Amino acid sequence: MALILRIACAICLCCAIPAYAGVTSSDVVGVWHGEVVRPTVRVVGITTFNADGTFSLSSDVRREGADALVVEVSGRWWVEGDFLYEEIITSSNPQLAPCGMVVRDQVLSIVGDHMQLRTERGEVLVRARRLTPPSSGQPSAAAHVQR
Q1: What is the C-alpha to C-alpha distance for residues 12 and 99, in angstroms, rounded to an integer?
Q2: By CB distance 3.0 to 4.6 Å, which of 23, 67, 89, 145 could disulfide with 107?
Q3: Can you list the domains of the chain with their CATH numbers?
Q4: What's the pTM?
């Protein structure tokens, strides 16, 4: 009886918590919107991951007691295992986003239009896929900040 109970519990656990099969580059390609809110800073960004391995990010950074700052970066990205890497090659603000910096996030899941990541600091972030990339006539990340 105990053996049957253990097997039933194991089956329930396996069914209740589906294993993430892993991330592929094609899962990541697209335009993603993300937001990070901390006690003294709020960052809203739009990242475009291109199929050729390049990316661009436009972000609106608002620090408590300081003027808003738009930071634009670009570089290359790649996937290794369940990790998404972004290497910054150009930056409009090297103090906040230095050239040569590599960001390594673990992809926890990509389900539908949402990607869940764990940063190297252990924070869990969610990015939402946009259906179309912003064109030159559309607002940047700064316009998406609710004031």
Answers
A1: 47
A2: 23
A3: 21-132 (2.40.128.280)
A4: 0.76
